[in-house]
C-alpha cells in the first residue's frame, strides 16, 4: 500500500540553524500539508500546498517557515533560524483529488538545543 | 475555548468492553475526521464523516451536524486498540483543527 514517507526520523540542531524536513507524499496525490505537535500538546496545522503554491497557512507559519516542492516527488519544510520552541514532531500529510482523507507520514522529531 | 473538545481525556477499559469517545465542536465544518495516534507517534486516519454513521470492523463513528457532536465507538475492545484517538474538524479548505485527543488504554 502506498504511504507517505518522511526523513529524517529525528533531527537535532542548534538554535539559529536552518533545517529542512523532507517528505515524499503518495505519488498521485495533489494536496500536501505540514502539521506539528509539540510534546504533550495537540496537533496543529501549519500549511497546505496545492498546485505549486501555498493554499492556506496558520498563524504559526511565519516568515521563518517555507515550503517547496522542488521536484515531482519531494515536499519540504524549511525553518530558517530555529528556535527552542520549534522543537516538536512535524508531520507531513497528503491527499488525492477525490477524497478528504489525509494520509500522514510517520513524522520527524525535531529537537532544537 | 477550544474549537474542538474531546471527552474523556483518558479512558481505561477492560478487554471486551464497549468504548465511546465523544467530540464536540463549535465551528461550521465541512467534515469531521477521527484519527488514531500510536505510541510511536504515527497518525492513521480512521474515518472521515460529513453526516450519519460509518463502520469499519469494530469501529463505528457517528456525527450529528445539528448538535455539532460526533462519537467514536469501539466494540469488543482489545489491548491493541490502546492508542490516542483524535477528533479533527475540517473547516476552510482542507485545513484540519485537532482536538486534544483521548488516551485509551485497554487492559487484558
Walk me through the structure:
The complex is a heterodimer of chains A (113) and B (108). By secondary structure, chain A is mainly beta. Chain A is built from no helices and 11 strands. Chain A is globular, with a radius of gyration of 13 Å. The N and C termini of chain A lie far apart (37 Å). The mean pLDDT of chain A is 94. Chain B is mainly β and 108 residues long. Chain B is 0% helix and 59% strand. Chain B has no helices and 11 strands. In chain B, a hairpin with a 4-residue loop joins strand 7 (59-64) and strand 8. Chain B is globular, with a radius of gyration of 13 Å. The termini of chain B are far apart. The model of chain B has no long low-confidence stretch (mean pLDDT 94). Chain A binds chain B through residues 31, 33, 35, 37, 41-45, 48, 55-56, 58, 89, 91, 95, 99-104, 106-107, 109, and chain B through 30-31, 33, 35, 40-45, 48, 86, 88, 90, 92-101.
